[in-house]
Amino acid sequence: MFNPSMVPTPDPNPLPAPFWVFKLLLVVTFALHILAMNFMLGGALLALLARWRQKGSQFGTRIFSDVAKKVPVMMAATISLGIAPLLFVQVLYGQFFYTSSILVAWPWFLVLVLVVCAYYGFYFVSYQGERRPKAVGRVMLFSTTLVLIIGFIYTNNLTLSQVPAHWAQKYFSSTSGWDLNLSEPTLVPRYLHFMTAAVAVGGLYLVLIAWTKWKQDREYARAIFQLGGKAFLYATMAQVVIGFWFLFSLPKTLRMVFMGTDPLATALLCFGLVAALTTIFMMSAALKKDNIRLAALGVTSITALIVFSMSVMRELLRMAYLKPYYNPQQFAVQTQWSPFLIFLGLFVAGGVFWFVMLKRYGLFSRTKPVQP
Amino acid sequence: MNYPVWDVAFGAGLLMALVAGLHVFISHFAVGGGLFLVLTERKARRNNDSQLLAWLKFHTRFFVLLTVVFGAVSGVGIWFTIGLISPTATSNLIHIYVWGWAIEWVFFFLEITAALLYLYGWDKLEPKVHEWFGWVYFITAFASMVVINGIITFMLTPGQWIATHQFWTGFFNPTYAPSLLFRFCISLALAGIYSLITASVQRDAALKARIVRWGALWTVPSLLLLPVFAWWYIRDIPPVLWASTRGAMPTGTHFALLACLLLGGTFLLALISLLRPTRLHLAFSLVLAVVAFGAMDSFEFVRESVRKPFIITNYLYANSLYFAAMPGDGGFTVDNLSSTGVLQTAKWVQNRNLTPANQVAAGREIFRVECESCHTTNSYRGVHQYIVKRQWDQDKLHAMLGVLFMMHNNVMPQFAGTDAELNALSAYLGSLQPMHPPPDLHPDGRAVFEQNCSMCHLARPDDHLFTDMPKDPQAAVAALASLPAMFPIMPDLKLSEDERRALVQWVNTQRPTQAAKGGN
Question: Contact at 8 Å (CB) between A241 and A277?
Answer without folding.
Answer: no
